[in-house]
Amino acid sequence: MRYTILALKNLTQRKVRTGLTVLSIAIAVAVLFTLLSFNKGYQRALSGQLQQMGVHAMVLPVGCPYEAASLVLKGGQIKQHLPESVMKDYVDPIEGIQIAAPAFMSGIVRPEEGRTDIYFGIDSRTIDLKNWWKIIDKPGVDVSKWETLVRDDSNLMTKAEFEKAFEDDHAVVLGYDAALIELSTVGDSIYVPEVDKEFKIVGVLAPTGTQDDGFFYIPLRTAQSMFKKPNQITAVQIRFTDPTMSGPITEQLDKIPGSEIITMGELLGTMQNLMGSAKTLVFSIVLIAIAISALGVLNTVLMSVFERTREIGIMRATGAARKNVFTLIWTETLVMAMLGGALGLILALIGARSMESVIKAAMLRMDMSIPVKGSLIALDPKVFVVCLLFVLGIGTVAGLYPAYKASRARPIEALRMD
Fold first, then answer.
1. 282 vs 290: CA distance, rounded Å
2. Are 56 and 271 within 8 A, CB to CB?
């Protein structure tokens, strides 16, 4: 404590030089904090957006993968199937898969009406996968007024209600477009003469603006039985815990016999490239900031030592040991570094949101392929810790040589200097 007080007194005797050094450290810390927070926030925002997309990969029967993916997404039929056992034997054991939802899809052609009704067999895992779905389950309502209906949660089906409703193999949830085509609503029944089966509408999916709106969703077991494909599936829709780990997970999925794997390759690849570029930029600037700060502090303290040679000589002549001189000079360096670090963190916190606006505007002008919503600055405690370690590192390293130089000064030679 005595060294700290003495160090503060010595620093205040050279206010301009000390102030400029503290300010240079503060700027370096502010830049470091902002960059690290942006890097973390940007990755978090990108990951969050990809998570909202739901399906990161699909396991499909062997064949042309892009054709098969197109068929699934656009509502076509797939002649090949996979055994449902691939879920237990191959998919479920893989770490990094957040949700894997099996599905069975097939269509019933209605030539007299010029359409094909696509029946999609699902279970509750699809509800977890499509967590943005809003299923209206209030009987007798006009689903065309869905915007009003979805504002009241009492009109919407919960996961537990979905599971209970789908225990009945006559239950069906209609996509919004399918409901309009059928001119039906919740509580109505529809008869399918091709399979001699009647379904009761237990819910209608609010518009999603995707192909989901056109399907007839029925229990997985019902779909398998209706199309005489017991224990068979046409796809496994997968969401990763971390989308950037698609490569290792896909390698494991490739081991499934008779399957093809479709991933959001282009989008995931773009995300990985952007994250990689951001990390490279951040670490490059961090290294430059460390070098500049360390050299600036080293120069300031070293010049101070040269100017105080006589003062240091008097200290040594009056009984101060070398370790006392070393500790004093080193403490002065650490105090400057800590003051600069504290000021830098304050500046970063004050200017973080303004900096975020600048970054977002720049990204918009660059026409980035993945626009990011939400905050790009993540105020993570780990970032504070890294900045504090940065400051301590600067103070420790930059103060070593000047402190050593001062401690080695000979009292007689120092006192002779003017």
1. 12
2. no
* DSSP code of residue 417: -
Average pLDDT in the chain: 79
Distance, CA of 81 to CA of 109 (rounded, Å): 20
Question: For residues 288 and 281, what is the distance between their CA atoms, to the nearest angstrom?
Answer: 11
Which phi and psi angles does 58 have, rounded to 5°?
-130, 135
* Per-residue tokens: 52: 């909202």
Distance from C-alpha of 179 to C-alpha of 192, rounded to nearest angstrom? 15
CA-wise closest residue to 67 among 77, 82, 52: 77
Q: How far is residue 217's CA from residue 175's CA, in Å, rounded to a whole number?
A: 8
Least confident of 26-30, 167-171, 354-358, 384-388: 354-358
Alpha helices in 189-229 (DSSP H): 220-226
Residue with structure tokens 């002779």?
A: 416
pTM of the model: 0.55
What is the chain's Cα-based Rg?
33
Closest CA to 212 of 204, 223, 221, 222: 204
Give the Cα separation of 301 and 330 in Å (integer): 9
